[in-house]
Write a structure and sequence with these properties.
Blueprint lengths: L3 E6 L8 E6 L2 E8 L2 E6 L13 E3 L2 E3 L6 E3 L5 E3 L8 E7 L2 E5 L1
Antiparallel strand pairs: 1-10, 2-3, 3-4, 4-9, 5-6, 6-7, 7-8, 9-10
The chain binds FE2/S2 (inorganic) cluster.
Length: 102
């Protein structure tokens, strides 16, 4: 069964920004691009670097360690050396709360 976690307040993350949040035991990178929130695992699939410490380019997140890039919308690898997609998570808004569904 899906579990929901309040991870931030609306306004904590603005367009073009990202933030590390925690949902249960999982670290997740929450980002906003073009007024929409995205949530992906905050661990690069190459060697587990925190992606929230990386660089956001539109809908892509670039890992700060070795430069892998992923599409936030799908988790898909766009630039090597990562070979495995990221887990992505559903984001919901309830009033001023940002909720991640696991
Ligand atoms: S840990 Fe992210 S590209 Fe190597």
């Amino acid at each position: 069964m899906a579990e929901k976690f309040i991870v931030a307040k609306v306004g904590d993350v603005q367009n073009g920004q990202k933030k590390r949040v925690k949902a249960g035991n999982l670290f997740i990178m929450l980002a906003m691009v073009e007024d929409k929130y995205y949530a992906v695992q905050d661990a690069c699939s190459h060697n587990k670097a925190s992606l929230s410490a990386g660089y956001l380019h539109g809908h892509r997140i670039e890992c700060g360690w070795h430069g892998a890039q992923f599409d936030l919308r799908t988790g898909e690898v766009k630039v090597l050396p990562a070979a495995k997609s990221l887990n992505i998570f559903q984001v919901e808004i309830d009033g001023e709360n940002i909720i991640i569904v696991l």
